[in-house]
Amino acid sequence: MEIMINTGTSVIQAFYEKKGSTLKDEYRQSAAVAFMDAKDMEKMSLNPRDKIKVKSEWGEVVLYVDKSHDAPHEGMIFIPKGPWANILISPETYCCNIPTYKGIPGTITKTNDEVLLVSELMNKVYNKYNLKEENLSDRPVYKKKED
Description:
Elements: E1 2-8, H1 11-19, H2 25-31, E2 33-36, H3 38-43, E3 51-56, E4 59-67, E5 76-80, H4 83-86, E6 104-111, H5 118-126
Parallel strand pairs: 1-5, 2-4
Antiparallel strand pairs: 1-6, 2-5, 3-4, 3-6
Helix pairs in contact: 1-2
């Protein structure tokens, strides 16, 4: 299905960012979500928390889907700003140093692929952490300095 992608800050996603849990599953559950109009979900036989692959000209990412609280807005999805949304937006800032976070053309398909944690996503897309079997969300946020 062709879709228009809009991104922005979500209260729940911002809460987990401020809490410092961006490497945890609770952040993934709140920020790796595409909020869709219920009619579009019905057209694609999607239920809340099903997974979809969202593609744009700049990348693709797997997200959970949920019913939008701001419907009706058929033909559009809302994704909270963050690592998952950033994969879909243009890196071009058009002289203002801010990318375009709204009105991004894309497509969505239902998938059984996994929604990645931030560390897994960064490793896959940017080869950021060179993870083998360990996941960053399993590491402590703070490690006490040994005497």
